[in-house]
Design goal:
This protein is mainly α. It has 3 helices and no strands. It is 73% helix and 0% strand.
Length: 107
């Protein structure tokens, strides 16, 4: 009797565990499909990085003004590629925050 009870309990535990795993897998897929804004923002950031790197390689960033002369933060060094990448990414993420705050569908 106790062997049958142990086997039944083990089978029930396995069934519950498998059910929880399938529910969590479905939940993560559903969450990814419910957030199209996150995918668009990631894509925009990658496009921004590509455009800044392209502009740097072509020489379009050479004409940017130097930093503030005598400034303790910049010291007159030229604007770097990574500075522009992070500045643009921050602006895109700020745009995402504004869209999520304004549009109730993306909250």
């Amino acid at each position: 009797m106790s062997d049958e009870l142990d086997r039944t309990t083990e089978t029930e535990v396995q069934n519950v565990t498998q059910g929880l795993e399938s529910v969590s897998a479905r939940g993560s897929k559903a969450r990814r499909h419910r957030d199209p804004l996150g995918g668009m923002i990631s894509s925009l950031i990658l496009i921004w990085v590509g455009l800044v790197c392209l502009a740097s390689n072509v020489g379009q960033l050479d004409g940017l003004p130097r930093g503030l002369e005598g400034s303790p933060w910049n010291g007159g060094s030229p604007v770097g590629v990574w500075s522009l990448v992070f500045l643009g990414a921050g602006g895109i993420i700020l745009l995402e925050v504004v869209i999520r705050a304004v549009c109730p569908i993306y909250r």
